[in-house]
Amino acid sequence: MPFPHSRLWRPAPEQRAYEEARHRVRALRFFYLHAMVYVVVNAMLIGFHLMGSSHRPWAGGPLMGWGIGLAVHGIMTWGRVGLLGRRWEERKIAEYMAQEQVRTLSTEKQLVEARMKLLQAQIEPHFLFNTLANVVSLIEPAPQKATMMLEHFIAYLRASLAASRATQGTVAQEAKLLRDYLALIRIRMGERLHYSVEVDPELESMPLAPMLLQPVVENAIKHGLEPKIEGGRLLVRLERRGARMLATIEDDGMGFRPSAGAGVGLSNLRERLAVLYDGDAHVRIEERSPGTAVLIDLPLPPAS
């Protein structure tokens, strides 16, 4: 195992923190050394001067002794400062490492959220145009159906717009967004889609990152149920498991196929969870007969 202070062992951010801490320690040591040398040399010079003086030769000896004593004391103190400096350096390194980790985590969170918003911005126009085209196509043959679809579409847009602007939401808000979305898809797919969104009442007020489950539900519709001629059933269930929450998105569609869209969606989800929950959230994909289940295990915030 590499020695903790080995340069070969550290990643770049840690190496920068180490170099900065070491630079500060060296600056402190050089300052103390220069100050000590300055005082000692001046004391000895004054002592030599007084010993050669005809007015106060008696003062030169004690001053010389004081200068030599100060030099010895300085050397001993320098040794102690070296030891304390190493300890201080270790503390500063730990402090800088912690600060670097916080900065890195904050940057990663911002990057992931920006990437998710960009992805959402790319997806929403297609969804918007397709839905409006469906509404237009229903106006003459099925005006009531067109009206219902438009109402659900407006509700979904309101919820998704609020979610895209928020940095934190709740389980209840995410469930409403999913219901609005699925109600919209239900009008388009008709009897080919049956769905259910079940939420443990204890979880409704719990914080949840906005639109965290939305990509998984979209994947289930797009890659699992829509390609299936007879359609199928989608179940979204959020339940409490002690200090954790388990979100299950299950469909009886075509089964999981690592296509480009599905693979990217799940990869983005994993990346987002890793940053938001510091590695304490997990995604598992299970093949069902028929269909697929995506299980997302999340930690719940501690009770206040």
TrEMBL record:
Ranges that cross the membrane: 30-51, 63-83
Pfam families named in the record: 2TM (PF13239), HATPase_c (PF02518), His_kinase (PF06580)
MF term (GO), any: phosphorelay sensor kinase activity
Segments forming domain Histidine kinase/HSP90-like ATPase: 208-302
Keywords: Kinase, Membrane, Transferase, Transmembrane, Transmembrane helix
Tree of life domain: Bacteria
Assigned GO CC terms: membrane
Protein name: Signal transduction histidine kinase, LytS C_term similar
